[in-house]
Amino acid sequence: MITYILSLVFAIIWAAITGSATLHNLIFGFALSTLSLWIVRDQTSGRGYWRRLGRILSLALLFFKELGLSAWKVAVLVVSPRMDLKPGIFAFPLTVDRDFEITLLANLITLTPGTLSVDVSEDRRTLFVHAIDCSDIEATRRDIANGFERKIMEAFR
């Protein structure tokens, strides 16, 4: 994680030195700093950086896939002449336990059309989720646990 933060800092420094804060220049600075840090990885012990980066990218790809699928499902529900919806709130038992992981999971759920994170229990073991269709709550729980939550644990543990 420290290597990633260093790459971001070096990319910002690169933009400041070049005098151009365009997206392309920031991406180039990030790539250049990542390459530089990769070259000296044995001295900085950043061996897990590439693995973590891959897992974070995998989480991002899963999010975009789920975003597209759920947007399509909501669009079909909205234009269908008969909406057979069973909206409701269900409790999702959390496996993640750190504040960052819980916040990330709640935000990913909220950003996915048709679902909304409502609250986290006081003991931080349950996330309450509103869904536009709660006809199969167990399947929704499995989807969240085997999708977003699993990818978050892989990326940040």
TrEMBL record:
Membrane topology term: Multi-pass membrane protein
- Name the UniProt record assigns to this protein: Na+/H+ antiporter subunit E
Where found?
Answer: Cell membrane
Q: Which InterPro entries match?
A: Cation_antiport_E
- The domain of life for this entry's organism is Bacteria
PANTHER family to which the protein is assigned, alphabetical: NA(+)/H(+) ANTIPORTER SUBUNIT E1, NA(+)_H(+) ANTIPORTER SUBUNIT E1
Q: Would you identify the family this protein belongs to, as annotated?
A: Belongs to the CPA3 antiporters (TC 2.A.63) subunit E family.
Keyword annotations from UniProtKB, A to Z: Cell membrane, Membrane, Transmembrane, Transmembrane helix
Q: Which organism is it from?
A: Rhizobium puerariae
